[in-house]
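Changelog note: in this version the structure field was regenerated for every chain. One regenerated record is shown below for reference.
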Amino acid sequence: MVEVIWDDNANKKRIAFLSYGIKEFGLQTALKMNERIEDYVESLANNPKMGIVEPLLVHRKRKYRSLVVHKLIKLIYYINESPYRIHIADFWDTRREPSRLARLFKGKNNK
């Protein structure tokens, strides 16, 4: 099992998404959604390459992958080879303009 690390910004977006879910749909629904996210993260830890290479980020030095965890949410992540870890770089709302994702990662360190 590979260690999974949430980048600060991605985790803040996840918390905001779940907070919105509590307000709009209730605590039980938000808890189920969080459980679903955690299940996907656990699956990712066991199979790091299960997500597809993110088409909007193919021109980056890093190889970003994405995994749809809900019809509205993608986890954007990359695999660090040394030490071998998964970094969740973004918690992306798929309703947003796709080109914004590419712009968001333009300024990130892409070693």
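Spot check on this record: The chain has a mean pLDDT of 89. Strands lie at 3-6, 52-53, 64-70, 73-81, 84-93.
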